[in-house]
From TrEMBL:
One of its GO terms (molecular function) is hydrolase activity, acting on carbon-nitrogen (but not peptide) bonds. InterPro entries: Amidohydro-rel, Metal-dep_hydrolase_composite, Metal_Hydrolase, Metallo-dep_Hydrolase, OTAase-like. Pfam families: Amidohydro_1 (PF01979). Residues 32-386 form the Amidohydrolase-related domain. This is Amidohydrolase.
Length: 391
């Protein structure tokens, strides 16, 4: 096959040599040309396992971390990422203007949380809290605490005004937050539906952090399009998700990598205990979703210094999925979740020229993509070659 690229776009794909006077020609030589990978769950600014410490270090430190993390992702073949909490217009603009070497960048802006929810990082003994957008008293860099329909609408509109690709809410408890159990459902129906409606009017969608089945089911019933994590999903709920045509982005890396190094990096005993609950159910949940035919994307959610384990997501998923299934999760299904079908995650005329060349056949050996970029001979992002070992 031959592929021609011009002005950052794939112009032609042919089973015959393509005539193009003056074009630079690169012989892939029997290796595998495929779309660049898509990681749908990153937090570029999350520079430490302790979210409150991230906030106190201020923007320059967080930005320096983002530069290093995003550069590593690009070197691993991830030509697109979705920052699902914390990414902003400034970082996206710096990437667009090529001040930062990074993948294509979609962002959800600040995560919306209710008081006492997963992104309210105050410990139970902390009383201070100033209500109102952008003065939530904790985790200002990545989240905003909102209660009631009007506050939810205002916060959603504000993030969309700031260029958010979608809106992220926390619809259940989580591992890292200090005062909410994982089984807790968060946001009322009217609050969730209000946020969903704002996204519909903007022709985009809501993605919801969910661990337990109750949060997954009610979120989808209330109009949420994409579920993050779904760690505790069972077979019945997986079938429900599939029937509704919703998407799920599981995140195995953050669970199992944090189990390995979390305590050493400062995770609290309470968070480690919640992490064990997630780990016990995570792989079984993947099997439930595969059996039900749930459409799944590829996400990692790695925090702090663990970002360099991004490619291990393939290692964890291979316990359940075939290489072809994982390749689709990390390319075409990811593009569908991003509402970028035909533009990303494919090699076809009119698509963005985000391409990688693999030294081998990932359909036979998915470990080629789990090697932190060492098995990638070429990486192209928006038509620009950022790595080339073929010439």
């Amino acid at each position: 096959m031959s592929v021609s690229v011009e002005d950052g776009v794939i112009r032609e794909v042919s089973d015959r040599p393509i005539k193009a006077d003056g074009a630079r020609r690169i012989d892939v030589g029997g290796k595998t040309l495929m779309p660049g990978l898509i990681d749908l769950h990153v937090h570029a600014y999350f520079s430490d396992m302790n979210a409150k410490l991230v906030d106190s270090r201020d923007a320059p430190y967080r930005t320096a971390h983002a530069v290093k993390k995003l550069g590593h992702a690009l070197d691993c073949g991830f030509t697109t990422v979705r920052d699902i909490g914390g990414g902003d217009y400034s970082l996206a603009s710096a990437i667009e203007d090529r001040l930062i070497r990074a993948p294509r960048f979609f962002y959800a802006g600040k995560v919306l949380s209710m008081t006492g929810g997963h992104v309210d990082y105050r410990t139970p003994n902390e009383q201070h809290h100033t209500h109102g957008y952008c003065s939530c008293g904790s985790m200002n860099w990545g989240g905003v605490v909102v209660d009631g329909v009007d506050a939810c609408i205002k916060a959603a509109r504000e993030e969309l005004r700031r260029g958010a690709h979608c809106i992220k809410i926390v619809a259940s408890g989580g591992v890292m937050s200090p005062s909410d159990p994982m089984w807790m459902n968060q946001f009322r129906e009217d609050e969730t539906r209000a946020i969903v409606n704002e996204c519909i009017e903007r022709r985009t969608y809501v993605s919801a952090h969910c661990h337990p089945v109750s949060a997954i089911r009610r979120s989808i019933e209330f109009g949420v399009r994409c579920i993050e994590h779904a760690t505790l999903i069972d077979a019945e709920t997986a079938r429900f998700v599939a029937e509704r045509g919703a998407f799920v982005v599981p995140t195995m890396s953050v669970i199992f990598v944090s189990m390995e190094v979390g305590a050493a990096l400062g995770m609290t005993p309470d968070s480690m205990a919640k992490l064990e609950v997630a780990a016990d159910a995570a792989i079984e949940g993947l099997q439930h979703m595969r059996d039900a035919g749930v459409k799944m994307g590829f996400g990692t959610d790695l925090l702090g210094s663990t970002y360099d384990r991004q490619c291990r997501e393939f290692e964890f998923r291979r316990q359940v999925f075939t290489p072809l299934e994982m390749l689709r999760q990390a390319t075409s299904t990811g593009a569908e979740i991003l509402m970028q079908e035909g533009q990303l995650g494919c090699v076809r005329p009119g698509a963005h020229a985000d391409l990688i060349v693999v030294d081998g056949d990932p359909l036979k050996d998915i470990a080629l993509l789990a090697a932190d970029g060492r098995k990638l001979d070429l990486i192209m992002r928006a038509g620009e070659i950022v790595k080339n070992r073929l010439d």
